[in-house]
Amino acid sequence: EPEVTQTPSHQVTQMGQEVILRCVPISNHLYFYWYRQILGQKVEFLVSFYNNEISEKSEIFDDQFSVERPDGSNFTLKIRSTKLEDSAMYFCASSLTGGGVANTGELFFGEGSRLTVL
Amino acid sequence: SQQGEEDPQALSIQEGENATMNCSYKTSINNLQWYRQNSGRGLVHLILIRSNEREKHSGRLRVTLDTSKKSSSLLITASRAADTASYFCAPHSGTYKYIFGTGTRLKVLA
User: Fold this and answer.
1) Which among A50, A99, A110 is the nearest to B92, CB-wise?
2) How far apart are CA A50 and CA B85, in angstroms?
3) Average pLDDT over residues A103-113
4) CB A81 within 8 A of CB A16
5) Are the Cβ atoms of B43 and A93 closer than 8 angstroms?
6) Contact B106, B15 (CB under 8 A)
7) CB A11 within 8 Å of CB A20
8) Which residues contact A43 (CB under 8 A, 6 or more apart)?
9) Would an 8 Å CB–CB cutoff place A4 in contact with chain B?
10) Is the peptide bond before A8 cis (omega within 30 degrees of 0)?
11) What is the DSSP letter of B81?
């Protein structure tokens, strides 16, 4: 069964360093998302991406964050100058459709990348 | 899109019993989806119900939707220990995001 894969599974970094989290969405999917979950808290929306541009972003997704689809298969989240509060599990998700009335739009999630900022 | 509010926040039942959790939302939707998250893992899509549907079944799952009350419920019948997880609803209004609430933490005791 096709799945969303994320690398690395765990990354430890020093405060102020840049981090790139990578995702390979399901191959025929068109919509891509990043979410994060701070330990013990809810899953928070960061950004959605379609047709090579950001569709929507949350207030969390400030200038520190950027996303890119550098080729036909990868979808990356870059966090510049990491802060302690960026420590969280980051989930990538993809969907075939955007979820209108006639579409389903269910999200398929990866297993996450745990980021620890020291 | 909007956030759904799940209720109860936590639910503890015995194996074999049914588990019911509820979701309320505020504005009109195209569809509503339910997801499960096992501790620390990615969310898994369970079932989707469209705004013009009232009830849907998938295996041991039954979901209902009442658009007049802006609410949905998820019933898991004959629960198993493996159903222990957090459950989230995601009401969707056609925008490019899905917002998850705090979920219902279900614990099924063997």
Assistant:
1) A99
2) 31
3) 86
4) yes
5) yes
6) no
7) no
8) A35, A36, A37, A91, B37, B43, B88, B100
9) yes
10) yes
11) G
The string over B11-36, giving b where at least 16 C-beta atoms fall within 10 Å of a residue's C-beta and e elsewhere, is bebeeeeebebbbbbeeebbbbbbbb
C-beta separation of B47 from B34 below 8 A: yes
> Considering only CB atoms, which chain B residues are within 8 Å of A105?
31, 33, 48, 92
Size of interface A-B (CB pairs under 8 A): 71
The encoded tokens of residue A5 equal: 């894969």
Q: Please tell me the distance from the alpha carbon of residue A37 to that of residue A43, in angstroms, as a whole number.
A: 5
Residues 6+ apart with CB under 8 A from A60: A36, A44, A46
pLDDT at A73: 87
Q: Between B84 and B94, name the one with better pLDDT.
A: B84
